[in-house]
Amino acid sequence: MKLSENTENCKPEIANVCAPNGSSNDFQSRRVSKKKRTQRLYIVTTGLSNEDKSLVKSVVRALGSAKIEPNVTKNTTHVVTTGVRTINLLHGIIRGCWLVGLEWVLKSLESKEWLIPEDYEMAHFSKAVSENRKDRQLFGKSYIPELFTACGPMYIEKTTKIPFDALIDLVKAAGGCITNNPETAKILVGSGGLKETWILDCITSGELQSYNQYRHS
Questions:
Q1: CA angle, corner 206, sides to 201 and 209, nearest 5?
Q2: What is the per-residue pLDDT for 147?
Q3: What digits encode the pLDDT tens for the residues 32-89?
Q4: Average pLDDT over every residue of 208-212
Q5: What's the confidence (pLDDT) of residue 74?
Q6: Exposure pattern of 147-160 as b/e (b: 16+ CB <10 Å)?
Q7: What is the side-by-side strand order in the sheet with 78-81?
Q8: Distances (CA, A) of 27 to 17, 35, 116, 166, 210
Q9: Does pTM surpass 0.85?
């Protein structure tokens, strides 16, 4: 009986030590949340004025745990943008980055830490913004964009209005295959085939667009 009494008397003390403010699961959740907030951020700015770009750089220096990149890469986590469609913004959509406005940066500065960007995500830009970002969060390093995977070889003419190399990089980043031989291509982009805006609109929407409205007349 004495042993049983001692065990019962110890239970409240153990509970208080392990979970002073709630359950052990709550405690673990707070630790995970804290860990996520301290992960290093890789930020690209696009479409911003030089003044706003400088502002973002100063906030990065002030808050730390972040690095400014000139262009979107597989490491980029956040793209700070005005919503103007640029090559970096399109790469951000493809790679499932957080697309956020300058407000996220300013609010983070006010809070003296990088805020969770969900409330500042530019999901209204297109459904692909949040869909790709969620896929990247789900699959992590295994996330591979597949938008153009089923299109077969693409041939892009070097006379396009948008820089040839930029279009090549976008297609490859979105899972596409490029050929240097127009005879073997299933899709030809340029004066003899589709307008290059077909590539941009497919990426923006996250869906392959019908060829009809993009054919050169």
A1: 50
A2: 97
A3: 344 455 689 999 999 999 999 999 999 999 999 999 999 999 999 999 999 999 999 9
A4: 96
A5: 93
A6: bbeebebbbbeeeb
A7: 66-68, 41-46, 78-81, 98-100
A8: 12, 13, 19, 47, 51
A9: no
Q: What secondary structure, in 3-state letters, does the chain show? A: CHHHHHHHHHHHHHHHHHCCCCCHHHHHHHHHHHHHHCCCEEEEEECCCHHHHHHHHHHHHHHCCEEECCCCCCCCCEEEECCCCCHHHHHHHHCCCEEECHHHHHHHHHHCCCCCHHHHECHHHCHHHHHHHHHHHHHHHHCCCCCCHHHCEEEECCCCCCCHHHHHHHHHHCCCEECCCCCCCCEEECCCCECCHHHHHHHHHCCCCCCHHHECC
Tens-digit pLDDT profile for residues 129-188 = 999 999 999 999 899 999 999 999 999 999 999 999 999 999 999 999 999 999 999 999
Q: Which amino acid is at 3?
A: L
CA 33 to chain centre: 19
The candidate with the shortest Cα–Cα distance to 115, out of 125, 128, 127, 101, is 101
Residue 189 is encoded by which pair of tokens? Answer: 């982009």
Query: Tokens 């291509």 map to which residue?
Result: 185
Predicted pLDDT of residue 8: 36
